[in-house]
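A protein record in our archive is deliberately plain, so that people and models can read it alike. The record that follows is passed on verbatim for readers who wish to inspect the format.
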Amino acid sequence: MSAKERNAEYKPLLFTTTVRNPERIKYNLFILKKFENQILTDGVATNVVGELIKYGLYRPMKISVAVKSIWKQTPKGEFAISLLDDRTISTIIADNPQEHKEAGFARGYPSRFATIFDVAKEFGFVYFKTGEKIEFSELGNILADIVDVQIGGNNEISLNLKNPEREQSVFLQSLARSQRANPFVKVLNDNIPLLLLLQTIRLINADSSCGNNCGISRKEIPLLLFWKDNNASELYKRIKQLRKDYGYTPSDEVIIDICINEIMQGNYKKFDPRSIMNDYVDEFIRKMRMSGLISLRGAGRFIDINHNEDNKVDYILNNYSDYERFDDEHKYFEYMSKIDKNLIAQKAEVVSEEKTNDLLSEWLKTYKWNKIKEELHILATRKTSKDNVLKFLAAPVRLEFLTALAIKSKLPSVMVKPNYSCDDTGLPTSTAGGNKGDIECFENGNGILVEVTMAEGRTQTMMEIWPIQRHLSEFIAEYKISSQCVFVAPSIFSDSKDQIEWVKDRKNLIIRDYPIDEFSEYLERESQLYKY
């Protein structure tokens, strides 16, 4: 028996305790890319973490008032508004010794490096090992390349995302192969979580006695997180029995008892039951939604297959259900990092403009105006949503969705056409692509292009206004109607206002700018979106 097998245990699935939000993996990879092909030593690992601190992506607790004032302006895990200087970074590292220890890495910042990048390694985006070169895969390169960072004259950080829709394709390919019993982790559970989820949902939905054809409920997900093997048939049968005994509302104690005493039969790693029912479930849903194959139903109480992507689901189940196991870390990395062009070629069902508009109207049954306004204010103040659906949408995606809902809610006669990719419920899976505007609206023969961003300060000015001018010009050329643009952001930077005035004077293009809360007030007050 190998050392791995002797030390391995059955564990509930938790991909990472450090980078819970998968959208932020690409930011960390952008930094690590600077060190590609360097031999990984303790010094290099510490320098990588120092670079993360420099950009605000990793934020130790003991910092100066000046650093705190910089970091408080953006959420943890995202880029700060400006770079820190080398002396400040050295002070932060000295003032925040890390007691962390990971196998194969020295205690302290080298182990912190490993913790930050372990999930990217497990997903096949990058390979690293002490004494060996830092190696990026093709998938990792795609993710890192999405991030475009420009540094201004006063060290301001300007972030732009190029081809953000490619991120979903990368995660889809990784999750289709990602094995529980991989060489990077010591677990005995042996399955591919995404495939187990898809197979189980299909079995549940095919059985009319299982209920409402909405997939698997949040309460039932812990059974999948604990499941030992890839036997979806047995998991489906256990969920069916659970529903027969308790309906859709079993107590947490019932679920934990099944996981511990029935599935694990006492052979398991200790865990916090409260985390299993909440944090673990949320993290699992976030990762699975990154594939684009999962929809939320019943106000977030169920997760189901996104039927717009049935072709991809069929392809994955047909081609990845029988999989090779690996003992060698680098061979597993090579397997994980391959690009499956046939999977990419599978086309999603095209959602018509009329259906998109209808789906927005359906969401208005769940989100009334006061709730929409409240959630928009949460974005304006950069707080965290607690909503069981919206919390799974990254802030830029959520802003596009809520803005479209807000317009439809207060001005129902406006035809609202969001350009974001969405699932079969109309919930966005990514932001609109960079080659077109965010939301196209039509009212009384006029066009209104609505552009939204979470960017503020110089980033907003540098990365938003010129693309908006281009999108509006192309919008007018395409539809040949009188058109203007509504620009919405948490706040409008003074330089952005100057650029907007320049565009009006020199290009004769109308861009109306609104902070998020002021746009909500406009919709409450006015009867038309187009302003004469």
